[in-house]
């Protein structure tokens, strides 16, 4: 699964789910048995988008093998150890944390999508309505709290004591200059807050429980804004292979309209297609890694 808002930072054994494009394609490109096979690591190998993607790749003359993993740590380790050619499951912030904490140098070579984090209000439809309510419920877990606060910053509802914080906490909020009060609760309880009539920032994972769709958000983070860019999902490989021509073709194929239609079906319309260049993604990654090192 692409990391949306609640990545599970646990280490588990990877379960290989091979989805070959043609009979007989069973070997990894990295084992030297078939250098024409591009092996992709994913945590959502069973999604329909990959079936469509593989059909398009085959038509483009590429042999693609997708390997599924059951956790979010193993695909990067497998890539670092040359067990994969590329992976596609994570956003730039997750990649930056992996590189910094593992002293690795994995790089993005193409963008896929972003899953905007939204602000929802049962009794209002505008940011002004939220301001009148005076309070916003947000998730309190480390992964989502900082992003939720930055969503409110982008909406003009919250001011931070210091600009540009990657993962701000409620302690970083300048309450005197902010237009709403923040109440941080367990991510699952943001649904209860919403149902009780309070504006709430709700993870995509819990939208169904709140009986609301991503399209009903009063406000959501903008992929073009600096605060949201670390959450762009990306194609990733090792530094020495980032300019591989066939890897760039993978990016083009992913943005094929039929593949994108499958992505929307898989994500209930919550994914927003992103087309940042490899150079732009690398700059965002470099900046994010620097902020992580600074905060550490």
TrEMBL record:
Keywords of this entry: Lipoprotein, Membrane, Palmitate, Signal
Record family assignment: Belongs to the NlpA lipoprotein family.
Protein name: D-methionine-binding lipoprotein MetQ
Signal sequence, start to end: 1-29
InterPro entries listed in its UniProt record: Lipoprotein_NlpA
Lineage summary: Bacteria, Bacillati, Actinomycetota, Actinomycetes, Mycobacteriales
Spans traversing the lipid bilayer: none
Membrane topology: Lipid-anchor
Gene: metQ
Localization in the cell: Membrane
Pfam families: Lipoprotein_9
Chief location: membrane
Organism for this UniProt entry: Corynebacterium provencense
GO cellular component, one term: membrane
